[in-house]
Amino acid sequence: WRSAPRAAALRALLLVALVAQASAAYGYGSGKKKSKFLEAYPMIFKFFLFWWCVTVFAVMGVYIADHLLFRKFGSAKVVFSVER
């Protein structure tokens, strides 16, 4: 259990490092002006790109949830019967 605080500190340090790099990459922070990311593309392209990303995120979320549920509960129990 002694390594738990160390692991939590390393995770927090990793999160701060990743967030700091992302904000620096897109030009935010320390008084800089806003980045002009995707400025050259028309608004309709950005609209469809946004919804495409939302759709892919949702599909991957369903896939991951299905995979985790399969690991926890196993395959579905299906009973086939013929009634006459």
Entry keywords:
single chain; 84 residues; mainly alpha; 2 helices; flat
Description:
This protein is an all-alpha fold and 84 residues long. It is 64% helix and 0% strand. It starts with a helix and ends in an 11-residue tail after the last helix.
In summary, what is this structure?
With 84 residues, the protein is mostly helical.
Uncertain runs:
none
Largest sheet features:
none
Could you state the order of secondary-structure elements as H and E?
Answer: HH
Number of helices: 2
Secondary structure blueprint with pairings:
Elements: H1 3-25, H2 43-73
